[in-house]
Amino acid sequence: MQDRNIVPEYEIFDLGQMTSLARLLNKPRPAGRAGTSTSTFVMNVPGGMPGHDRGPGRLQGRHEGSPGRLHVLGTGIGRSTVDVILASLSAGGHLRVGMEDTITYRKGVPVESNAQLVARAKAFARAGRPGRR
């Protein structure tokens, strides 16, 4: 992956996986190969971490001090989608949206397309940054 400049994505479903990821990221690498990776916190999956308004910011802090560059994203499954979007944005983080994670736009209203979910996330991001179009 490093030889081909592939950026891996690690999906984290519960806090125990953070320990495993930290161990992997802290393994010695060849000189000059700190690398970049992406960690997506997938929240509100049954048996995983809850999708609430405090999660993404707290989880992002756990990655401080990781070697190389680590991009952190949050995604909420189902009804936690909007909570996780807002929490990720307010913590200065990134997010992932799409029909893979969310099939209803709001209660009883199915999602029409990924573009609809991206537009909603974009509107939330702009609302938090006055003066941006």
Topology:
Blueprint: E1 9-12, H1 16-25, E2 36-43, H2 55-61, E3 69-76, H3 81-90, E4 94-95, E5 104-106, E6 109-110, H4 114-127
Parallel strand pairs: 1-2, 2-3, 3-4
Antiparallel strand pairs: 5-6
* Order of SSEs: EHEHEHEEEH
Helix count? 4
Architecture, CATH level 2? Alpha-Beta Barrel
Which overall shape is indicated by the principal axes computed on the Cα atoms?
Answer: globular
CATH superfamily: Aldolase class I
CATH class: Alpha Beta
Tell me how many strands there are. Answer: 6
Gyration radius from CA atoms, angstroms: 16 Å
The main β sheet shows up as: 4 strands, parallel
Features:
4-stranded parallel sheet, two-stranded antiparallel ribbon, 133 residues, TIM Barrel, alpha/beta, 4 helices, 31% helix
Report on the structure:
The chain has helices at 16-25, 55-61, 81-90, 114-127; strands at 9-12, 36-43, 69-76, 94-95, 104-106, 109-110. It is an alpha/beta fold. It has one domain: TIM Barrel (Alpha-Beta Barrel). The strands form two sheets. It has a four-stranded parallel sheet. A hairpin with a 2-residue loop joins strand 5 (104-106) and strand 6. The mean pLDDT is 80.
Summarize the structure.
The protein has 133 residues and is of the alpha/beta class. Helices cover 31% and strands 20% of the residues.
